[in-house]
Amino acid sequence: MARRKKKQNISKNFLNVIIFLILLFIIFFLIQKFIIPLWKDQQFTETIPEDREEPSIEEVEPEAFEKVEIPLYFSDEDARHLIPEYREMEKRSDLVKNTIVELIKGPSNQNLYPTIPNTTKVNALYVQEGIAYIDLSSEVVRDHPGGSTGELLTIYSLVLTLTSFPGIDKVQILIDGNSGETLVGHVDISVPLERDEEWLSN
Questions:
Q1: What is the rounded distance in angstroms from the CA atom of residue 42 to the CA atom of residue 71?
Q2: CA 122 to CA 187: how far, in whole Å?
Q3: In Å, how far from its chain's centre is CA 97?
Q4: Which one-letter DSSP state was computed for residue 185?
């Protein structure tokens, strides 16, 4: 008799556990299904009102730079003199470097000729104590047509163009950061070079 009663108690306890688990599952389901979404909706409507205004986006005008005319020196058709071609440039902090970039691009005038291979890049350019240090890529050597006159025209087109700027008296040419003895074997570029107007056509 006692054994039967004990079995009934165990069965009753097991049934209670099952019922508790079922109720727990139902409560959890109701929370997930109804209460949490309702709370999220309430939170959303409280933090982001429906009548909010979108921020206005103002059109910003690009910064206007003063324009200046800079002389770029190119070869004449006889490859004997350097002729200035004036180009309008924006007066920005990188004006001097951009001037040499334009020089490398070549002349607009069909009667003038480039002096620097157009594959050349300007690695860096800075001015210190009146000397402009211009660091050109190795293409200025690799793609140069050669010859002493061609080398002189390349060098002094750089020197005349750069010394057109106030505060620049000399030019030191570097190749990939190094100061070489010559560009293509004829002219000493190991020291800063001064402006030489004998290259200008009279």
A1: 70
A2: 20
A3: 15
A4: S
